[in-house]
Amino acid sequence: MSGPKLYGLMAEFENPQDLVEATRRAREAGFTRLDAYSPYPIEALTEALDIHDRKLPAVVLGGGILGGLCGYALCYWTTVVNYPLVVGGKPYHSAPAFIVPTFETTILFAAFAAVLGMLGLNGLPMPYHPVFNSPRFALASRDRFFLCIEARDPRFDHDETWAFLTKLGPRVVMDVEE
Length: 178
Hints:
The protein is of the alpha+beta class. Helices cover 48% and strands 13% of the residues. The model has no long low-confidence stretch (mean pLDDT 93).
């Protein structure tokens, strides 16, 4: 029977400036699978983590396009194919009459795509995360700042990463088990 699997290494810092500097240095050293935890938002930390994910706008655009196509197809099918009815001498396929329902389904599908895409891309809902196994991590919601480098990072080597994190001047470096 094997022991617990290693999720990564986590360093604890006392102030946000040290955390931001450590995060920048970790990115410069080539680490790509890392995350930082803070009791409050730090704008410089987002920049240091280099988080520039542009997938959600594409998901919302795709949802909007799909919604527009579905709305127009539904209007077309109901008035031309399923129940053709001449009203006031107008043609069965009257595109101006389809504008409002098409617009509404476009907005509806885009909104659903935004919510579901955000949840999916953020990996939510996530009731459990391995960093919760660290007894000191409870301080992340009070007054401590943490940087975690995941073991699945291509550059991760336990001893080398431990030495690297120690050079950054943290209060403590610890293993995080899954």
